[in-house]
Design goal:
Layout (H helix, E strand, L loop, with lengths): L1 H23 L26 E12 L4 E6 L10 E6 L14 E8 L5 E8 L2
């Protein structure tokens, strides 16, 4: 057991200079080396934004379920085309302030459950 512990400590001590060098390394041009080209790095799929704004027309309001049915214009931030959809609303949204046929400005926010909800909405005057 003691030998195993001593080996583990030795491995950590021997690795420390390499870890410190990597941490201190900048990605600029080092003597005799080319500068790293970050433009060709694959960063994977880009995440969608957590919040976005939109404009739409209310088709129906379900106060009991806390949802609206809305036909909204394209929302490029989310990659959403013009579409009609049912959207849940947060408790902050006053569903008594809108009715079918109203044009509205609204904001959606992505919840922890990965579902967008209307967090702000007001009729366009």
């Amino acid at each position: 057991m003691r030998t195993l512990m001593m080996s583990a400590i030795a491995a950590v001590v021997l690795a420390m200079p390499a870890m410190a060098e990597e941490k201190a390394m900048d990605h600029g041009k080092l003597a005799g080396q080319k500068m790293m080209d970050h433009s060709k790095m694959d960063h994977g799929p880009m995440a969608k934004p957590v919040e976005a704004s939109g404009v739409g027309v209310i088709n129906s309001v379900d106060r009991e379920k806390g949802t609206i049915n809305i036909t909204h214009e394209p929302m490029p931030e989310l990659g959403w085309p013009t579409m009609t959809m049912d959207m849940p609303v947060t408790k902050r949204v006053d569903l008594g302030a809108v009715k079918p046929g109203d044009q509205v400005d609204f904001k959606v926010k992505l919840g922890r459950d990965k579902q967008y909800r209307v967090m702000e909405m007001e009729a366009v005057k």
